[in-house]
Amino acid sequence: MDDKRLSGILAFLQSAEQLKDTIRSGSTREGRPESTAEHSWRLALLVLLLEKELAGIDFPRLLKLCLIHDLGEAISGDIPAPDQQPGDDRQERERRDFQTLCASLPKDLAEHLIALWDEYAEATSVEARFAKAFDKLETIFQHLLMPPPGASFYEFNLTYGRDRTDYHPLTRQIRERADTETLEMIRSLEGAPSRS
Asked: How many CB atoms lie within 10 A of CB 29?
C-alpha cells in the first residue's frame, strides 16, 4: 500500500475516534451517557442480526450506511431528537463536518464515503431507507433500557421516526414491538415520581 494513502486512512481513523466522546441524550442501562459511537455500533449489530430477513438488500452497503451515518457528529456533536427542528440546518452542518473529517482520506475513499453519507441523508436507496428506519428503532429500544426519567419521556418514543419505521413490513413489525414495550413502560411509570 502506498504510504501516503495509508497515512490518510489512519489520520481519518484517529479523527473518527472522536465519535466515542460524542454524547447523546440517552444513556446506557446503568445510566452512563451513551456515545454516538455506541449507538452506531448497536445499529450495525441490529442490522447484522436481521440479515436473513433482508433478502434482496445490498447488505454490505446497508452496514456501511449504518457505520457512517452519524460520523459528522464527531466534530460538532449530537442534537437530541426532541430538540431537532425543521430548517435547523443540522443536516448541512453534519455534512460539512463529515467532509472535514474525510479531508485526510485519499480522494477516492473520501468521495465514496461522502456519497454514502449523501445516500443516507437523502434516503435515495432501499438500503438508506432501511438504515434510517433501523436508526430510529435502535434509539427507541435504547430508551427502553435506560433508567426511566418518567412516563412523559416515553411519549416521545410513540411518534419518533414513525415516517421512517413505517417503511417496510419488517420495520413496522419491530416498531409494533417497540410501541408495545413503550406503552408498558408508560403504564408502569404513571403516578411514579419523575427522576428528572
From this structure: 11
pTM: 0.91
Pick the closest to residue 113 from 131, 101, 130 (CA basis). 101
Least confident range of 4-18, 46-60, 76-90: 76-90
- Do 71 and 118 form a contact (C-beta atoms < 8 A)? no
H or E stretch at 24: strand 23-27
Residues 63 and 44: beta-carbon distance below 8 Å = yes
What's the number of CA atoms in the CB half-sphere (13 Å) around residue 126?
A: 8
Could you give the CA distance from residue 79 to residue 82 in angstroms, rounded to a whole number? 8
User: Could you tell me which of 84, 83, 192, 186 has the C-alpha nearest to residue 144?
Assistant: 186
What angle is formed at CA 166 by the lines to CA 69 and CA 71, rounded to 5 degrees? 5
